[in-house]
Fold:
Amino acid sequence: MTFIFGHRGLPEIYRENSIEGLNKAFDHCDFVETDLRITKDNNIIFYHDSFIKGFFIQDLTLNEIELLLPDIDLNDMIFNSREQLSGNVNFEIKTDDTDKEHVEILMKKIIGMTNYKDIISSFNWEAIHNYKKSFNCHYGIILDSEEDLFEAKAISNHDEQMMFMVSNNVINSRNFNLPYERSVVWTVNDENEFQRLMELGLYGIITDIPDTMQLYKK
Structure:
């Protein structure tokens, strides 16, 4: 069975990566995919970009973020307990524009904040490799280029637990050779393409519109 992942919740209806939107998405999908970043005062927040109004998140405290985003309830951004989310989660660890010290703090904090069906993934392959033995859940690396396939295949051969979060253009490459059953494709919003991918035996498909795509679940 191929699982449906809600991309940052239900972004067509709720603010992306909001706790409210993530939980509402579980009405329509098997997983949600969400982004995690760490602040200057070592708090984890749900947020995609590395900066807020020109300031890097790793240089901001929660109080400063609240001042920069007065229209957003900070409690709808802070991740402090797995109980905040009611279903299975793909946590994407965002480390761009983040120094090594903060990356290590984020990785160590997330270790104790997952359920066994969750997935921890990142573009930072090194961080996933360094901490994978400590995870109590699935883990994976993210690919957005065909050039990544050779190295990813080598990793797959040596680690049968590694998952692969691949962009739609990568999985459609004639050179794609990763195991479908450990691959999750992002981000698919075309209904015909979604139906085609559902036939491949993938682990999952990430979409902005899980409320629509659930109609094609087998």
